[in-house]
Input
Amino acid sequence: MFDTAPDAPLLEIRGIEKTLGEQHVLRGMDFTVRRGEVLAIIGASGSGKSTLLRCLNLLIRPDNGRIYWQGAEVGWHQRGDKRLPMAERELLPFRTRLGMVFQSFNLFPHMSALENVCEAPMTVQHRDKSEVRAEAEALLAKVRLSHRMHAYPHQMSGGEQQRVAIARALAMRPEALLFDEVTSALDPELKAEVLRVMRELAEEGMTMISVSHEMDFVRNVADRVIFMHAGRIAEQGVPAEVFADPQTPELRAFLGRAGD
Amino acid sequence: MNFDPTLIENALPSLLYGVRTTIWLFLAIMGLCTPLALLVALARVSRVRGLRRAAATYVNVIRALPLLVILYFTFYGLPSLGVFVSPFTAALVGLTVVTTAYLAEDLRSGLMAVPRGQFEAADALGLPTWRFVWRVLVPQALPVMCGPYFTRAIVTVKATSIASLVAVSELTAQSMAKVTETYRSVEFLAFAAVVYLLLTSLMAILQSRVQRRVTLP
Ligand SMILES: Nc1ncnc2c1ncn2[C@@H]1O[C@H](COP(=O)(O)OP(=O)(O)OP(=O)(O)O)[C@@H](O)[C@H]1O
Ligand SMILES: [Mg+2]
Output
């Protein structure tokens, strides 16, 4: 599908920039994500975290910069010295390699938990119905929702809905997962059950890029943390080290607020 | 003033012909403009700028013109352009063009009521556009679209009467013909009014039925 290099990083980001409206939201981001790595992204509200995540799977197209998936550039064709944007259709094989989970769950409200999980594998990947269903049941069991398989989103707690959303993303058999503040809308008890699922996924070796304000999660689960400020990486490194010795006043201020 | 029901009885075949024509005209308009208006509404919320612009232009131009002017155009204007159609077809085309524009606006409000997150989730899962439209967007928009849709249907039942001005023998035309013939107006106008009332009431009943079925769990 892609002209990939086996020893290349799973995802490589070079000089990503994005302007939304009048605002220069991303001002040049560079980083790489290795297979199996858990990368946390933190930063104040409005620093561009959600925008970055949406650029990673090309839900929105960066104005500048390059994205490499296993060594192959995605999003543009190089024709001589011209760069032509890929059609939406061409992006799909790449986009579905990355699963995405949202702060607001975004389950399809008119479908049961099981139908939510089955929808995309059946219609996008055209997989066999009974196989998809069996796998969906297994995924719902994995997120501890076997007993809620036929419930509709409005009948479930936020924590349950978010776990269905994780199962829905996993059903596409993605190679990495993107999480955008997936516990921010939840009460503490409900947070815990979602974080537990995420921790288990990390232990199984799933590659994860997670925007999160759960400092315990970042500290204990993430291999690396990126602190964003004004559309750039202000600091990065191993969470324990970065938190113990913040270099910038912005991160010090951010950690001060997060500790409250 | 006296009311003579035997007048209606004697004119019944002619009046019922008008009722039939009105119902056919109405059904044909709704049958055509429902899918067309959905397409126009989808174009208006499309990611493709050209589609959005074309749909907006259509809606705005049609809304700016009086219904009667459009009907006169399809009735007198098309033949002068070499397109010859029956009065019924001329009225059907004119009313469909107009109703589609208004209905498209009604349906668009339903589409816009679907949260942005649903678009994002479907995009992230890679659902193809049409699959997204049928499986995610339309089912969620239906409960919101239902009320405006039937209101538009009721407006359209009544709007068919304007076809009487372009030689279509529908209910209003047939009733007025009898008024001219007998010099009695109350009986025939009452008949027409009752039929319009029945048809619009039917729409109101249908609306509450459908509304219950499409409301999300
Ligand atoms: N569609 C848009 N048009 C214009 N500006 C936008 C748009 N979307 C986001 N922005 C702006 O871009 C900036 C970054 O937004 P983004 O959502 O990426 O921040 P964030 O770090 O995720 O914040 P939060 O922690 O609140 O989720 C914000 O100032 C926001 O107002
Ligand atoms: Mg955000």
Summary: The CA atoms of residues 82 and 90 of chain A lie 18 Å apart. The longest strand of chain A covers residues 23-33.
